[in-house]
Structures are given as C-alpha cells and as structure tokens.
Amino acid sequence: xxxxxxxxxxxxxxxxxxxxxxxxxxxxxxxxxxxxxxxxxxxxxxxxxxxxxxxxxxxxxxxxxxxxxxxxxxxxxxxxxxxxxxxxxxxxxxxxxxxxxxxxxxxxxxxxxxxxxxxxxxxxxxxxxxxxxxxxxxxxxxxxxxxxxxxxxxxxxxxxxxxxxxxxxxxxxxxxxxxxxxxxxxxxxxxxxxxxxxxxxxxxxxxxxxxxxxxxxxxxxxxxxxxxxxxxxxxxxxxxxxxxxxxxxxxxxxxxxxxxxxxxxxxxxxxxxxxxxxxxxxxxxxxxxxxxxxxxxxxxxxxxxxxxxxxxxxxxxxxxxxxxxxxxxxxxxxxxxxxxxxxxxxxxxxxxxxxxxxxxxxxxxxxxxxxxxxxxxxxxxxxxxxxxxxxxxxxxxxxxxxxxxxxxxxxxxxxxxxxxxxxxxxxxxxxxxxxxxxxxxxxxxxxxxxxxxxxxxxxxxxxxxxxxxxxxxxxxxxxxxxxxxxxxxxxxxxxxxxxxxxxxxxxxxxxxxxxxxxxxxxxxxxxxxxxxxxxxxxxxxxxxxxxxxxxxxxxxxxxxxxxxxxxxxxxxxxxxxxxxxxxxxxxxxxxxxxxxxxxxxxxxxxxxxxxxxxxxxxxxxxxxxxxxxxxxxxxxxxxx
Length: 640
Known about the structure:
This protein is of the alpha+beta class and 640 residues long. Helices cover 44% and strands 15% of the residues.
C-alpha cells in the first residue's frame, strides 16, 4: 500500500545518498589522476606541513619605474617562477599569489634552496647562429605563404593566428620599423621544425665552438659534475660528443648514434652543465631536456646558449640587447587594420638594437650559418625569456628607430606577445619574506598528531551520544562515519582536479566541523523530545520535530559556511586551508542531515524499540506520556 500523500519515502533519500557515494568513489578510483595500486588512489594530496618540504614567501617590490606591481605583473611573475620551480623536476609544486604583492612557493616532499627562483626575469635578444631540427639535421626555411611587409611598416592582412612560428604554408609574423621611424625592413619568425626540410649539415659553423675547447674557465664544481656525467654516459660517448663540431647526420654513421644514446638519458639538470657546443651538437639531447633546464643555466648574457622553439634547436649568440633595454611594447592596429606589436627602446637600448640588427642583417649570410637563415634568406634574432624562445624574427633591415612586429596576429596573440616583452622591460623584483623547511619526520609527526586529534574528537562525540541518546546514538555514529567518508573522497578528488592539499590547518577545520555536526544532532533530538512531551506519538513527532529543527540546523550551518567563505577570501596561507576544509565539511554534513539522518529517523520511528525509553534514548519523554494516559486524563494528542 502506498504511503499517505505528503508522507516522506525514506528509501528515496537513502538511494540518492547511495548514488552520490558511488559516483564519488568511482571518481576516486578511476579519475584521470588516479594511478598506482588502490592504496595510492586513496591517498589525498598532503601539504608540506604533513609530508615535509619547503615553503617560501616572496614579496614583490616596485617595478623599475617606481610603480607598484599590477595584478598582471604579479600573474606573469607567478607563471615564470612556476616554470623555474618545475625546472627542478619537482612533482606537485604549488606557486600561488596571495594578496596583491606576495607569491608563495610550496614544494611538498622536497627540501630545496629557492632563493634564485625569485630573481627578476629579463628578456635576452640573441642572434641565431645555427639551427637544427632536433634530430641532427639542419633546419631549412619553409616557403613564405604571405606577402612580405613593406619597408614603411604596414603589414599585409593575414589570417588570424598565434604569435608563435607556424608550420609550412602559414603566414609568418614580421618585425618592421614603425612608419615614423624611417627604418628599413623587418624581421619574421622562423618556421617550426615540422615545416623544415632536413638537409645534412656538412661543414661546421664558425659560430659553433668546439665543446672541448672552451675559452671560459669552468668552476670546479661544474667540472666535477661534468666528470660525473662522463662516467655515467661512458668514455666512448663522451669522446664522441666532444669531437662533434656540428649536429651529426646519424643516417650516415649509425655507430655514432649508438654511442650518443646515453646522452638522451641525462636529466635536465645534468644537461645544463654540459658545454654549450655539446648541448647543440649532440642530437640525442632533446628539446624536452633543454626546455626543462633551470632558468639560471642560460641567464648569463655574456655566454652563448642553446634553446628550442617548436622542436628545433638553436645555437644562440651572446645577448647583445636585454629586456631592460625595451622601453615599452604594445599591441596596436596599423593602417591596414592588422594587429601589430610596437616596440620602443630606451636611448642606449636603441643603439644596441640598431647595432644588433646591423650585425645580423647580412644578405650574404656571413653573420650566421646557412641553417640559421629565415625564409627570406636573412639572419634571425631570438627573443628568449628564461629557457623559452618567445619569438625568433628574421632581420630584414637595419632598424634605427621604433620597430613593429607584424603578421598573422589577432588581438589576443598580439597582446600576449606585447605583455611578454613589457615584462622583460619592467621586471618585478622580489624580496624573500619567509622560508621554511619541514623535514619528512616532522611532517609525519604532524600528520599523526592531526589524525589522532580528529579520532579522539570523533570518539568523544560518539561516546557521549551513546551514553545520552542510546539507540539514537547509533544514528549519530553512522552519520559521522558517512560524513567522514564523503569528506575523505572529496579531498582525494579535489586534490587531483583543483590541486587542493590537505594541511594541518585543514585537519583542524574538520575537527571544528565535528562540533557543528554534534550541535545539529542535539537540536533535532531535543526538539523530538519536546514534541513527545507535548503529547504526540513518536511516529508523528519525528516529522514535526524535523520541520521545526530543520530551520535552526540550516541557519546554524549557513552561518558557519558564510564564516568559512569570508575567512577564505580575506585570509592567506594555512588559514585558507582551514576555511576551505571547514566549509567543505559543513556542506557535506548538510548532505548527510537531509539524505540520511531524517530518513533513518523516520524508519526508526516505526520500530518497537523506538517506543522503549531505555532503548530509544528519549529519556523521560515517553514515560511522562504513559503516566498521563494511566490517570484517565485525555492526553493532548496532536497528530501531524
């Protein structure tokens, strides 16, 4: 027989709760970040105060023009610092901005010196001396797919695209003098390696020095590292790499390829200490290894460097122009309504830029190797930010005034490139404010202490609930267990999806949430006793008590949730973790209240045990009602 209209069906709420559990734990075991055995999949992401590691807080000072850093400056700095930290090979590093000046770096499980990652990033303008497609073959320029911009600086409209080099058949951006500058020509980025037609490199370039004959003294520590690498790859591989004067044609000498294979197993940190010529000439040293090197490895503007762009390796000259020589860079629309990036240099910077373009502009190709020429047969200049080549334009003339980067830009790509150039010109400097190293042993003791505190808190609540509420205590126990399982599953999934890390402060937030959950039990059960004392039967008292207690429970949890949200917004550091964990546990407690506690109480109200004062835990509420009925007086029965 169907239940009366308006009467709840507890099975439906319990089914919804079961569905939530199934979906949540399917995500725990089979989501994209799940790996390893089932134990590994059940591990939440822990903060460094629980597993040890390093945390450093950097405060941004004013930019070089004396103005406070903007949010855009801080975000670009955060991305650059994150790239530098990732270059250490650190897993799950976290770099976040706090407030309008601070950047916090957290490396769980790692103790490292992070003093160098906060150094101001600057652009380096380096002439491309030589290029290879990454497999040892020389990179040939791709055919031009769009008209060359006129010397006046106006650009022919091109399809909208990225500022990075395009594959064969797509238009390439160029840099020209602005119309008012009266300069010559422009420069266009090289095509990507995928567009290159490989040809063997027959003769070594004069610009590619032998790695075995370095003119600069090498620090003893670096020399020791190189000896360790020589032992790792073997004497034969080291000798073969040292003798290379140009990227080898491996198809012509398969035995050489076998000898050089051990270099492909080197870490980015090991590759960083190799001589520049070896980094470029050894074909088994990949762009992936070069891209992941620490940023400081190519920071010296007085040394040649190797960097990659779209899979192609470039041997780069000394940096003749720095990012601080750029006065301003902005995205603009030219006369043809095409997006361009305008470059303005400082007084000395313009002199350096003119000298660099004059040096690179050589129609006979003598200023750079044949492999480094662009699609118009002229030398190129790479714009390098840390390890990343932002652009590698082809120099088409001597630029004596303001310059423009023209080509296949849209609004977004032009502003992105301009932003990178501005950041190189106006670097944000940082001062370390706090540095903390937490050992794994200390983190492990913190974790045990936090879990012990949480366990003791839950145990005390359960003991009190069974002592005071008896049968109803089982409802409290099961509710807390379900809440804990929901919170745990949510922590695992959130750690994979948004990178949330559980810290000691987060555990404290969950312990506090136990008190909120206990309050909701007391409100509900005491309201139930009041309804029974007023003469209602237990079966009718349960829904009536729920309706009245529900408002108070929702109000109390809403206040806690709002407090957690406000605290999360205005706080920094570990307090954010506390607020997030408190808010999460509060929301999930509400889920359990509506989908488990009320339905299970409705089911209990239909049992005989619920009518026994000793078993139900309703105390004197039921005996008082029975005594009133035994005197012959009519009890006040108010059925719902």
